[in-house]
Amino acid sequence: MRKIISFMHISLDGFVAGPNGEMDWIKVDEEIFDYIGKRIGEGDTALYGRVTYQMMENYWPTAGDEPTASKHDIEHSKWYNKAHKVVLSKTMKDADLTNTTIISDNLSDSINEIKQQAGEDILLFGSPTATHSLIQQNLIDGYWLFVNPIILGRGIPLFVDIKDKIKLKLLTTRQFTCGVTELNYTVNRQ
């Protein structure tokens, strides 16, 4: 069965964005891009909330075609255009969307159906609201967190309204030169 892995940059105090959605505090560089690119390249499905999907859709389809495109832009644009996209939204319709599935209701049943299909792990990119919904229904199987060396003090937290403890098992860690630390957890359902 496929797993849903939440991929997030996070502040040391647990925020995934500033109070107004700011992400200018996130540290990324070629070392991180190369590392993340290898893992993402193994996947075939991306899961987004509506806001993140629209942000991605406005950039990635053509990012690799730009004359000033970086290696990361070229590689991720190719991957993005091949990957199946799943979007959690109550307002979007999927009539004209290529290689995209919209889930607007029956979240648990719809996600579990996708998990049963053949394929690789499903990477949940950013999307704090979608992540909160999936956490509340116990649908996330792992957390791939990139802890940035900053304390924001306030913002959009990764974990809210947790009803039951979520036990995790640490799979890997990695320290990057820029000070970001990767923490890769699987949810321990036993």
From TrEMBL:
Residues 2-180 form the Bacterial bifunctional deaminase-reductase C-terminal domain. GO terms for biological process: riboflavin biosynthetic process. InterPro entries: DHFR-like_dom_sf (IPR024072), RibDG_C (IPR002734), Riboflavin_Biosynth_HTPR (IPR050765). One of its GO terms (molecular function) is 5-amino-6-(5-phosphoribosylamino)uracil reductase activity. Pfam families: RibD_C. PANTHER family: 2,5-DIAMINO-6-RIBOSYLAMINO-4(3H)-PYRIMIDINONE 5'-PHOSPHATE REDUCTASE, DIHYDROFOLATE REDUCTASE FAMILY PROTEIN (AFU_ORTHOLOGUE AFUA_8G06820). This is Dihydrofolate reductase. The lineage of its organism: Bacteria, Pseudomonadati, Bacteroidota, Chitinophagia, Chitinophagales.
